[in-house]
Amino acid sequence: MADGQGAKFHMTGNFGPVDDEATLLNLEVHGAVPPELSGVYMRNGGNPRNGDTEHFFFGDGMLNGVRLGGGKAQWFKNRWVRTACYEGKLRTDMAHFGDFRVTSANTNIVRHGGKFFALEEGAFPYEVDVDMNSIGINDFGGKLKTAFTAHPKICPETGEMHGFGYSPMPPWLTYHRFDAAGRLVESQEIPVKGPTMIHDFGMTRNHVVFMDLPVVFDLEMAIAGKMPFRWSDDYGARLGIMARGGKAEDIRWVDVAPCYVFHPGNAYEENGELVMTVCRFEKLWVGQSYDFEYPPQMHEWRINLTTLAVRETAIDDAHCEFPRVDDRRAGLVTRYNYVAGAETSGATEFNLLLKYDLKTGARSSLAFPNMGLSEFVFAPGGPGEDEGWLVGFAYDKTRNGSDFIVVDAQGMNEVARIRLPRRVPFGFHGNWFEGA
Ligand SMILES: [Fe+2]
User: How far is the CA of 161 from the centre of ligand 1 (A)?
Assistant: First the structure.
């Protein structure tokens, strides 16, 4: 168990929930908000309405958002997603197992086909609007028949959204593809050996990549109301490479060293190889599913698309998570990964913003002493990769409040800090919605 973690580390400090919703105007800004930044940043996270939850990954979804425009920070808002579970109309218990309307909608917020979706991987997407008002469950006209990942990939070249759903019950894994207008146009079952936890996946220009890794569903833990997955020494670890537009029976599986990965940075094809950068855990949830026993570290899988030979490379030994790229290059060759990191292995909070240059191997960092970082995402400025800003929330322990921070990605220097008179709990994922 990493230092400082415990069965309910997620209820302490800035992991703990807030108990209200706020709309704040006239925000205090230090530095200068770039006038080119016009849009809304929204970030999702678990924030239990009743103030308590069994696991870090549970808890009602709460969106925290900041609008920037005209060189100003126009507002901050936080809003719960008013799911049926939040309203107390549906319960997240075994009686509703397999009911995809049961969602905390707490993991990510994405925009596709002109709609915003709060996502949680065990359920249908939940639609919200640009002001973070709740709309409702969206099953795409009844076409979506499975849960849907919180980490779909939007292709910058076609506008398609690729995703999947996984389930403890067959079908264990199902691939979904939506056209640029947001219509669900393809669903097909992906054959896997068993019910594993599949949090994210990869997309390249020509392929999608499924991570079939050894964190496996455990019925006893499910019945006990616990996070129902644990490590398996027997399951094995492999990646499934399927052509976009191809058939599941033609998937090519390649073995990798056993590990768990929540998040890839990006996947792309280069010189006949499929490259995927990931934050890799050596093992996860060995016998329990509360703590993260091994630090996640940047790692690269490089797969020869002809021979299927795999090369694995540890990129760095720093403890880091929440890898992101310039999403205009999602699935395309990328040089830079941006990641939240920590100076000490085993830390539960991140105080470094790291930037990996995969071409030179260089790592640059920006330290935030006495602060805890959430995920930082890329907001475009100029046309080239890395031309823009990294934005995200950071918790200032000295004043028990949070800042929304804008960092110049190329220089890795802070340009603006919006000091909020309240804290924003550590959460999961967000995105910058340009023009919203
Ligand atoms: Fe995630």
Answer: 17
- Give the range among 203-207, 232-236, 293-297, 383-387 with minimum mean pLDDT: 293-297
Q: What is the pLDDT of residue 419?
A: 98
Note whether residue 90 is domain-resident. Answer: yes
Three-state DSSP state, 395: strand
pLDDT at residue number 4: 40
In-domain check, residue 144: yes
Residue 2 confidence (pLDDT) = 37
DSSP string, 312-367: EEE---SEEEEEE--GGGTTS--SEEEEEEESSTT-SSB-EEEEEETTT--EEEEE
Neighbours of 181 (CB within 10 A): 11
C-alpha of residue 357 to centroid of ligand 1, in Å: 22
CA of 374 to the centre of ligand 1 (A): 12
CA of 322 to the centre of ligand 1 (A): 8
Cα of 288 vs centre of ligand 1, distance in Å, is: 19
Q: What is the pLDDT averaged over residues 213-240?
A: 92
User: Cα(98) to centroid of ligand 1, in Å?
Assistant: 21
Strand ranges inside 168-307, DSSP E: 173-178, 184-189, 201-203, 207-212, 215-217, 229-231, 238-243, 252-255, 260-270, 273-281, 297-304
Classify residue 4: in a domain, yes or no. Answer: no
104: in domain: yes
The pLDDT mean for the chain works out to: 94
The stretch 171-178 carries a mean pLDDT of 97
How does pLDDT run across 367-387, given as a tens digit for each residue? 999 999 999 999 999 999 999
State the distance from the centre of ligand 1 to the C-alpha of 262, rounded, in angstroms.
6
pTM for the predicted model, two decimal places: 0.95
For residue 179, give the CATH number of its domain: 2.130.10.10
Q: What is the extent of the structural domain holding 279?
A: 9-434
- Residue 32, pLDDT > 80, answer yes
SS3 state of residue 248? helix
pLDDT score at 95: 61
Q: Ligand 1 centroid vs 35 CA: distance in angstroms?
A: 30
State how many domains the chain has: 1
- For residue 296, report the distance from its CA to the centre of ligand 1, in Å: 13
